[in-house]
Amino acid sequence: MRYVPTTPAEREAMLRAIGVRSVDDLFADVPERVRLRRPLRLRPALSDPELLRYLAELAERNGHADRLRCFVGAGAYDHFVPPAVWQLAGRGEFLTAYTPYQAELMQGELQAAYEYQTMVCELLGMEVANASMYDGASALGEAVVMARDLTRRDRVVVSQAVHPEYRQVLRTYTEPLGVRVAELRSEGGVTPPEAGAVDGRIAAVVVQHPNFFGCLEDLRGWAEIAHRAGALLVVACADPLAFGLLAPPGELGADIVAAEDQPLGNPLNFGGPFLGIIATREAFVRRMPGRLVGATVDSRGRRGFVLTLQTREQHIRREKATSNICTNEALNALAAAIYLSLLGPEGVRRVAELCVRKAAYLKSLLAALPGFELAFAAPTFHEFVVRTPRPASAVVRTMAREGFLAGLPLGRFYRGMRDGLLVCVTETRTREEMDEFVEVLGRVAAPRLRAVGGRTR
Amino acid sequence: MTDFPLIFERSVPGRRGHGLPEPDVPDRPLEELVPPQALRTRLPHLPEVSELDVVRHYTGLSHRNFSIDEGFYPLGSCTMKYNPKLHEEAARLPGFARLHPYTPEEWAQGALRLLWELGEELRELAGMDAVTFQPAAGAHGELVGLLMVRAYFASRGERRTRVIVPDSAHGTNPATAAMVGYEVVTVRSDPRGNLDLAALEAVLDERAAALMLTNPNTLGLFEEQVDRIAERVHAVGAQMYLDGANFNAMVGVTRPGDQGFDVMHMNLHKTFSTPHGGGGPGACAVAVKSHLEPFLPVPVVVREGERYRLDFDRPQSVGRVRAFYGNFANLVRAYAYVRSLGAEGLRAVAEHAVLHANYLRVRLAPYYEIPYDRICKHEFVASGIRQKRRDGVSTKDIAKRLLDYGFHAPTVYFPLIVEEAIMIEPTETESLQTLEAFVEAMVAIDRECREDPERVRTAPHTTPVGRLDEVRAARQPDLRWKPKG
Amino acid sequence: MYPEDYRYSTEHEWAKREDGRVRVGITRFAADRLTDVVYVELPAVGTQVQFMQPFGVVESVKAASDLYAPVSGRVVEVNERLREHPELVNEDPHGQGWMIVVEAEDPSELERLLDADAYRRHIGEA
After folding, report:
1. For residue A303, what are the β-bridge partners?
2. Under 8 Å CB-to-CB from A396, ≥6 apart: which residues?
3. Whole-angstrom distance, CA of residue A222 vs CA of residue B318
4. What is the CATH number of the domain that holds C108?
């Protein structure tokens, strides 16, 4: 049997040692009434080559980012992943280990997590970061619950320019706890700080930076308003590489940052596994969800690393834990640490600058393309919204046939934005690709072709 | 002896480890693109190292880790079975790994079909009617499950306030119930190690939304009265939730849906062999009976003829617990696993997991206390109480000493209802020879407890570091490296 | 080991009357059971505490226990030293390891607690 090494002779020997006659006897405690009395109705088993061939066939039906040139981001970013990242992170010693419960045997994973926590703090300008959460959206949900616990208040205000799926998750996490969520209107692609939105009942102000539309928010302004009312500023971030160039949220007054670290060396993976992270102030560390790794010494004074402050967690605190999270995304965090090590301070700055410059280039081309216009004038990082002459979803479908993932149509998320296309440019896009993108877009989606749209399939 | 350096301690100013491109677009002053006040004024303190430095550093760290690839990992409740290499190759196919989650559906048919087919297989294995893959791990699945239970009662105009959990439950169960706003009521286990039916009945009434049960339970024992328990729970209108962490022990033998469960989560990183990655990522499926289907998180994969699509139009849905659709790369691995084994192979998984656990149980029984010494399922709980009383050696010491013998330790001090618990799960993928070597080590340690207890108390002796000072770590938290000066 | 002039809760807090105020800590028994205390979470001065309701948390590496107020009233003093030196709870639980001082609303609540003899019986050390 595939992956079961026990031979029939060995099985007999074990049964004898146990003192039973058959394997069935080992299931005598399963009531007859609930036993499955027929074989499972599953697809037939495949040999290894058959299975790989089938999976390769399924994979080939997908318009992945090596096949369709990727101009979509919206929470999942096609940055360049140096081959060293997964050749190292994919080593069996890391891949097939469990949570480091026996610290002495797991210094590799623990040290890497400690290094990663440090790198996250540096990138975000925060004092402490945990070892990881599931993804940016669930990290945001947990961050808001954390803010509620810290402030003992049960209302939050959330910018409409926070990723719509993140907002949905935030509501799912907070609704059963009786937290009331109100939305802050975005204007011109940003969320202008508004003192009237925050009073003494508000636990947290939640904004994304750069926001879902790619625009830069006024974090300083929001921090001031939030803090004056005794509320916390919770910042969501979908691509922390922005902070290779931009002032990090910690320097602008963020109290809790919930970030998605997939962009740091992790593949797109059709949306998962991704890599959530929560970073905060030292004073709040005991209200943080998720595992934390700390440095200490061994019996001979040598440096070593352990899981620490575990009394926050479910296996000790049970129903009073800060969260139910147990399994996290350790391997993705390791990949992110390797990625950040390879890039270094100059590399993250370079990636961020390439993103901004290339996105600005495409932005200027699209602004000049007849029938297209930029939706917002606010400064952006590597994403921006462009208004399309036809419904954006139709543009995306047409462009896919031309070999491009043109962006994310916003009509599904925002009323009145059926012609809104969220476009992303990372360092992996070349000038030629952008020139061609604009040329093809002009050809297949421009207004003058609307009359003969049928001919474009 | 010097400490293994941190990557930051290998840093030399000016050294680089990347081959990033130069800008290929017209050079414009940065201030035109980003307002100066939004710019970072100081670069982050990241290491400045060469690619070879990075390779050596993380290869060195990998040598300071322990994994299934290296040796036996009998960590109870965690199902540390072999993670097939074929799955790694499959998950890294560009068609999966490089697929953007917002790729239009017509360009993601392969991925959606895989999800659909995996859903079909898991529904059959679980005896359930519908499935979601959105949760990222087991505890996340519990959250989804209880949110659906809550939504189900809300749709019927009922507000129930309690979730019942056994005293042997994983900590995630009560923690999840609290996250969904439920009061947690704990029920004790009976002397045979099953849920105490009388104790359950005493707390069971229409305030109960669900019973969260692990089956086989965390003692490794099958809940012999599971269907009777389900009858009682359903009689007050409450739901049966299965914590499927131990599904490994019953695949193909008995199905949760047939046992009376309404909703369950499956830890795909346990039963379905996706690798744990040193703590994650996991992957999870939540399967439900049809009455809970309307409440599944959005989106749901649906099939229309030969076409697959994501259905977002589900007005009764609990919403989302994460962005996108789930830990897809691990779902590819789980799918590969199910297709490699098929019906016969999956039943063999349960049979051999149980066979191996019982074999270890009887082999260790002469040396270690086994509080519930009867036929177990895929794992069993021993206790170090004998060694503690006789030799003054704790279970923690025994666990640490095992590391010197080249084995990962079992889960210790869980479940909470067994003193000095040692929870052992060998899995079906280990050979008789490995099991024998483990028995030898456990027997040798028992002898050491009697003859040289100090050696056990001060273990481990051969690991890269000795026993670590957890008290210091908690009293003076040092959670990040700080640059000098 | 257990001072005769203290009162004790079944949850292992002690209460020492000091004029109208009551000093509160946890017992040697509780401190030993917890093993090395690594953190004590205490309320701010001015907080109202209720008889036998949680007012804080004491933690070791592997356990966390709620602290129950042996008397209702306003917290007038908090042992700030425990922030830096939680080990005082282990070293001197009935003295320097004290946690809060409460301005009692109803000192007669203390009569509902155990005396030293009854507490020793409660923990099986009689």
Report:
1. A297
2. A405, A406, A407, A408, A409, A421, B104
3. 31
4. 2.40.50.100
Residue C30, in any domain of the structure: yes
The subunits that touch chain A, with at least 3 C-beta pairs less than 8 Å apart, are B, C
Which residue in chain A has the smallest CA separation from B361?
A18
Q: What is d(CA B329, CA B89) in angstroms, rounded to the nearest whole number?
A: 11
Q: Where do the domains of chain B lie?
A: 7-63, 86-340, 346-471
User: Which CATH code is given to the segment(s) A83-339?
Assistant: 3.40.640.10
Tell which wins on pLDDT, B93 or B2: B93
Q: What is the distance between the terminal CA atoms of chain B, rounded to a whole angstrom? A: 25
Do residue B470 and residue C39 have CB atoms under 8 angstroms apart?
A: no
| pLDDT, position A445 | 82
Dist CA A274 CA A240 (whole Å): 13
Mean per-residue pLDDT of chain A: 96
Nearest CA distance, B275 vs chain C (angstrom) = 27
Q: How far apart are CA A242 and CA B313, in angstroms?
A: 34
Domain with residues A69-79+344-456, CATH architecture:
Alpha-Beta Complex (3.90)
CB contact under 8 A, B474 and C39: yes
C105: contact with B, CB 8 A cutoff: no
Q: Using the 8-state DSSP alphabet, how is residue A30 labeled? A: S
Longest dimension (CA), chain C: 37
Is A317 in contact with A311 (CB distance < 8 Å)? yes
- Spatial strand order of the sheet with A276-280 comes to A128-129, A276-280, A256-260, A232-237, A202-208, A155-159, A180-184
- List b or e across A20-40, with b for residues whose CB sees 16 or more CB atoms inside 10 angstroms: beebeebbebbbeebebeeeb
Taking the C-alpha atoms of residue A430 and residue A348, their distance in angstroms, rounded to an integer, is: 18
Cross-chain Cβ contact A245/B106 below 8 Å: no
The number of distinct structural domains making up chain C is 1
CATH superfamily for B346-471 is Aspartate Aminotransferase, domain 1 (3.90.1150.10)
Q: Cα(B65)–Cα(B62) distance, rounded to whole angstroms?
A: 5
Fold classified for B86-340: Aspartate Aminotransferase; domain 2 (3.40.640)
Q: What is the pLDDT averaged over residues A346-359?
A: 98
User: What does the pLDDT look like over A163-196, one tens digit per residue?
Assistant: 999 999 999 999 999 999 999 999 999 999 999 9
Q: What is the DSSP letter of A135?
A: -
Are the beta carbons of A316 and C64 separated by less than 8 Å?
yes
Q: Determine contact: C118 vs chain A, CB below 8 A.
A: no
Residue C41 lies in a domain: yes
Beta bridge partners of B93: none
Task: Evaluate if residue B26 carries a pLDDT over 70.
Answer: yes
Q: What is the residue type of C97?
A: G
Tell me if the bond preceding B460 is cis, omega within 30° of 0: yes
CA distance C88 to C82: 7
Q: Is pLDDT above 90 for B2?
A: no
First to last CA, chain C: 11
Model confidence at A252: pLDDT above 70: yes
Quick one: tokens of B293?
């289907």
